Amino acid sequence: MRSPVGAGNRLALALVGLLLLGAGVAGLVLSLGGFGPALAGSPLIPEGMSRFVNDTPWFWWAAAVACLLVALLGLRWLLSLLRPDRASSLDLTDDPADGLTILHPGALTTAVEQEARSIRGVSGASAHLRGDHGYALGLVVKLGENADIADARTQLEQQLVPHLRQAVGQDLPVDIELRPGRRTAGRRQLL
Questions:
Q1: How much is the pLDDT for 19?
Q2: Domain hosting residue 105, numbered range
């Protein structure tokens, strides 16, 4: 399952990359005379713009502020990419007067993975708890080569998910991804 944020980041990086690649190719073609020998020998910054920059004292301050804003936006983007969407803890407290009940996501996911692996036909499982307020559990189940997919799905939905929801005491959304095992090339037996 791919998140829309990841898709947006890939698209933005692809567009920036294509823009920079296009600018680089255009500069290379220009310098090699691809747009005519007159343009190849001309300065990169036209004379009128160069005069404007020299005659306007605030230009470099505006350019510095623009660069700083771009750098801050880039830093914010980088920090948002580094911050995972995984939950830091699951608060199961019903009434604070009775005390706090906090569940560490690692304990929950380990128990879910172990229960998933105990199902016949499951060769591996990986779980993670997402969100800090609206929690959801993601479970990737790897099935063995000869696993009965329908049976494994039924056991996951009718046993594992109710056990999980009973343990946390809430109707926790669960996303289950089944990954069927791959068959190897058939071997012929000699009789």
A1: 95
A2: 90-179
User: Where does 32-58 have alpha helices with state H?
Assistant: 37-40, 47-55
Tokens representing residue 41 in the block: 């020998």
CA atoms within a 13 Å half-sphere pointing along the CA-CB vector of 165: 13
Domains held by the chain: number: 2
Place of tokens 């998140």: 3
Please give the pLDDT value at position 191. Answer: 46
How high is the pLDDT of residue 83?
67
Confidence of residue 101 (pLDDT cuts 50, 70, 90): confident
In a domain, residue 33? The reply is yes
pTM: 0.52
Q: How far apart are CA 117 and CA 126, in angstroms?
A: 10
Same domain, 16 and 77: yes
C-alpha pair distances (Å), 134 with each of 5, 74, 104, 129: 17, 28, 16, 10
CA separation (Å) from 120 to 57, 111, 115, 150, 161? 75, 17, 11, 11, 16
CB 103 within 8 A of CB 135: no
